[in-house]
Amino acid sequence: MEKFIWFSLLLLICHATSAATRPNIVILFADDMGYGEVQALNPQRGKIPTPNLDKLASEGIVFTDAHTASSVCTPSRYALLTGRYAWRTRLQRGVTSGHADPLIAAETLTLQGMLKQQGYHTAIAGKWHLNFNYEYEGEVLSPEGKGKNIKSPPINSYIPDGPLTRGFDHFFGFHHARDMRTLIRDDKVVEHIDVQDMLPRTTDFAVDYIRSQAESAKKGNPFFLYVAFGSPHTPIVPTKEWIGKSGLGKYADFVMMTDGMAGKIIEALNENGLKENTLVIFSSDNGTSKAADVIQLQNQGHYPSANLRGLKSDLWDGGHRVPFILRWPSGHNRKIDTQDKLIGLSDVMATVADITDYEVPENAAEDSISFLPLLQQDEASSTREAIVHHSIYGKFSIRQGDWKLLLSPGSGGWSKPNDKQATKAFLPAVQLYNIKNDIAEKNNLATQYPQKVTALITLLESYVERGRSTPGKALKNDADIDIWKDELNL
């Protein structure tokens, strides 16, 4: 009996120690910020100063081969928060526009829900873009207007099913860029603001949230803060103090402002004694948008995609290879400052589960693979067998090792040649690149390596058919998946 008591006490002590050292987690998620926008990642071809992100990179690990699950917004956010590819849902192409049921099903385990189960306090500041409905005076509102002329829902409109029913304790932000005037707190519209004020307001909320949680976090009650910046996505609205700072135009000013807002949040962690035991991740939802006036930037010596081909919307790497900087002083190997192994943003969920010693259910995080070994082991092997990419028009690509296959004759997105142009030019129906030797994806090797093409198609089909790309029992997708989309898109 005495031995049993001592053993039980030992277990309690170990559990208390584990709980006390669980890190706070802060994800800073930019919107349309390409790989080459961070100066530290693109020193030769990047001209926009990003001192705060450069400093974060110098204190942490820079992942040079990190990819979003899609080259556009909504599906990237879905994968980050669920560990699941969004093409497994009803969203087969494009993005959500609000005024609809959440894309994340109520029964789906989310990153924030997983952490909340473990006692984390959870909050989101900024952009949701995963759908919700508004109710006003007991009636569900329909969207009024289109595009830039969309009408904001009235103040006191209620959100019955949104971030607060998907694992977050607090929400302070907006749905998507077309309605950035509508400021939401938790589950109600509280204010209509000028669009240029949204980024500073959501940043201030994030800073205040960190301050409010600091003392509790130091006592072993960690928090998860997801800061989804609405920048540098359109509308490109740097505030007065940032206009002209870059010398490269308004878009570059907005990138600098985004860096500045990230710096404020990082400094709040440092000032409140939370640096050592906080896992900070900075990344982006996809590559730079054509709205940045890329040609004008390139003429001034700035290349937003660095040496990658493509932009937001595309299957080429410029559409989905993104900045990924991780700092966790008490948890990562200080000898590692750069990591060139392949990871996806969907892998954040499995990695956090590993860090917090959480056993993910077999029917969750279907496409999430932990990269924790890459943070801690000097010579860790790649943790990922392959990764699937998806374009704005629902075109598929798969990468395994150095080989990348695109099931598309063109960009799969907006960049030229798009698929219609490529087909008219009689370009091959698929593209195969050796990324190690040809990172700019210029030399299509599909006709030279037909067996590699077949093998990659077979692997992609297996990921689709099994409902997962991770080991485990086969699961069902939410919709029928067609990896070959024959329609030609402009």
UniProtKB/TrEMBL annotation:
<dbReference type="GO" id="GO:0046872">
    <property type="term" value="F:metal ion binding"/>
</dbReference>
<dbReference type="InterPro" id="IPR050738">
    <property type="entry name" value="Sulfatase"/>
</dbReference>
<dbReference type="GO" id="GO:0004065">
    <property type="term" value="F:arylsulfatase activity"/>
</dbReference>
<keyword id="KW-0479">Metal-binding</keyword>
<keyword id="KW-0106">Calcium</keyword>
<protein>
    <submittedName>
        <fullName>Arylsulfatase A</fullName>
    </submittedName>
</protein>
<keyword id="KW-0378">Hydrolase</keyword>
<dbReference type="InterPro" id="IPR017850">
    <property type="entry name" value="Alkaline_phosphatase_core_sf"/>
</dbReference>
<dbReference type="InterPro" id="IPR000917">
    <property type="entry name" value="Sulfatase_N"/>
</dbReference>
<dbReference type="Pfam" id="PF00884">
    <property type="entry name" value="Sulfatase"/>
</dbReference>
<dbReference type="InterPro" id="IPR024607">
    <property type="entry name" value="Sulfatase_CS"/>
</dbReference>
<feature type="signal peptide">
    <location>
        <begin position="1"/>
        <end position="19"/>
    </location>
</feature>
<feature type="domain" description="Sulfatase N-terminal">
    <location>
        <begin position="23"/>
        <end position="357"/>
    </location>
</feature>
<keyword id="KW-0732">Signal</keyword>
<comment type="similarity">
    <text>Belongs to the sulfatase family.</text>
</comment>
